[in-house]
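Worked problem 6 (solution included).
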Amino acid sequence: MKPIRLFLTLSCALLATISLGAFAAPPQKLTLQYDVSRNGTVMVEIVERLEHDGKSYSLTSDAKGKGIYAMVRSGTVKRSSKGTVIAAGLRPEEFHDKRGDRPERTARFDWGKVTVLHGEEGKLETKPIASPERVSDRLAMYWTFAFRPLPGKDASVSLAVADGGQFDDFRFASAGTETVKTGAGDIETLKLVKVPDPGDERGTVIWLGIKHSYVPVRILVVEKDGTRIDQVVTSISTQ
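Solution. The predicted structure is:
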């Protein structure tokens, strides 16, 4: 084989390896535990579990009070999402959100008809989906980046996020890399920042673990009144 042809062959193979490595899917079973603080005070612990086979996925999230907040039943939140893995990330088929004693909120997607049946128990309604290529839900939205190409320096990702009652628009842009101190150690991350709409004072920042298949290791939400809800990983397990 001629040297130039050999060089090109090896270069293509190397690029393919880098590409596959950059977008390698997470382990088929993954459990992350988080502490959630409100304005610096830890109040809640969350356990999130991912299972997938490269074609379909299942996500669960169980939140409960921690420490003196452990006895507050109304503070428990159970979320679940299941659906398929596609080139654009995770495409939900069913989402559930149960908060304490409140009625459960659900979203069931019919991709054949491009509609969603969503709302609270006993008050479900069917609506058309305007942007099917962008749809996610309140749980899958944070994990979808582990299954799709990540935005470049000057690119952004737009998501239409269902919460069981409506769709909220999110647009995330890359803000470079950053080391995050966590209960699971110092983790090198890719930082994604929500691009705010005009007049929107809320903020969302996601830190994705680079050596942990770009799963979310920290999520910061800033409310209109300045309240900071900070979710930081404390353990990562493949069990």
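Discussion: The two ends are 47 Å apart (CA to CA).
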